[in-house]
Write a structure and sequence with these properties.
Blueprint lengths: L1 H30 L13 H13 L4 H25 L6 H26 L6 H21 L5 H20 L2 H4 L2 H27 L17 H6 L6
C-alpha cells in the first residue's frame, strides 16, 4: 500500500508539472494572438494562480497540495520564458524575478486553497473555495480598474471571479452548507488582493500607471505587468 500511495503522489505531482507547462506555454502563444480584454488572461497573475489552485485540488494530502501549487506555478514561469525565448523574445532579469517571487508565494497558497476546497476538512472547504474567485475579483479592481482603467477587462475579470465562486459552490455540497463562511472568506481575500494588486504592484513599479500613460506594447508582454504592472512576448 505504501508503494501504491507513493506512486500516486508522484503521478499527482507530475500532473501539476504538466499543468504548469501547459499554462506557461499557452500564455506565451496567447499573447501573440489575443486582443483586449482576452489578452489580459495571458498577461496577469490570476490565471497562473488558478493553475496552482487546480494542481492543489488534485492532491490527496495537504502537504502535496501545497507542493503541487508551488510546482505548477514555478513551472508556468519556466515554460513561459522557455517558449518566449524560443519565439525570439528576450527575458528581462527583473521581470523574471518578479514572476518567480509571485510563484514562490502564490503557488503554495493557491495549492493549499485547491486542496482545502476539494479534499480538506469540511470547515476549510468554503475558505479554499473563496480563494479562486477572489483573486480575479481583486485583480479586476486593484489592477484593471484602479491602476490601468481597462473597463472591458474589469468586466471580464469580475465575471470570471463570480463564475468561479458559483462553480466552487455548486460542485460542493459542503460549501453550499457554509455560504456565510464562503462569503466572508471571499470578501477577506478580495480586500487583501486589492491591496496587493493595487498598492503592492504600484510600489514595485515605482509609480502609478494608467491606460493612457502606458505604452501599448507593454500590455502585449508580461514585462508590462511589472512596468505598467503586468508577463514578456509580443
Amino acid at each position: 500500500m505504501g508503494g501504491v500511495g507513493f506512486r500516486r503522489r508522484v503521478l499527482e505531482l507530475l500532473l501539476a508539472l504538466l499543468i504548469g507547462v501547459a499554462i506557461g506555454a499557452a500564455t506565451s502563444v496567447g499573447q501573440a494572438h489575443l486582443s483586449l480584454p482576452w489578452s489580459s488572461l495571458a498577461n496577469s497573475a490570476s490565471p497562473w494562480l488558478l493553475g496552482g489552485f487546480v494542481a492543489g485540488a488534485l492532491q490527496q494530502r495537504q502537504r502535496t497540495g501545497i507542493a503541487a501549487g508551488l510546482l505548477a506555478c514555478v513551472t508556468e514561469v519556466v515554460a513561459y520564458y522557455a517558449v518566449t525565448q524560443a519565439r525570439g523574445y528576450p527575458a528581462r532579469g527583473g521581470e523574471v524575478a518578479f514572476w518567480v517571487v509571485t510563484a514562490l508565494i502564490g503557488g503554495p497558497v493557491f495549492g493549499w486553497g485547491g486542496w482545502a476546497w476539494h479534499r480538506g476538512p469540511a470547515r476549510l472547504r468554503p475558505v479554499g473555495a473563496g480563494l479562486a474567485g477572489a483573486t480575479f475579483l481583486a485583480e479586476a479592481v486593484g489592477t484593471y480598474d484602479l491602476r490601468l482603467h481597462y473597463e472591458s477587462t474589469v468586466i471580464l475579470y469580475l465575471l470570471v471571479g463570480v463564475a468561479l465562486t458559483v462553480a466552487m459552490t455548486l460542485t460542493s455540497a459542503t460549501v453550499r452548507r457554509q455560504l456565510t463562511t464562503l462569503m466572508a472568506s471571499t470578501v477577506g481575500f478580495f480586500i487583501v488582493g486589492v491591496l496587493v494588486y493595487w498598492l503592492g504592484l504600484t510600489a514595485v513599479a515605482g509609480s502609478s500607471f494608467s491606460a493612457q500613460s502606458a505604452p501599448a506594447a507593454a500590455f502585449e508582454s508580461r514585462s508590462g505587468y511589472v512596468s505598467t504592472l503586468h508577463k514578456s512576448a509580443a
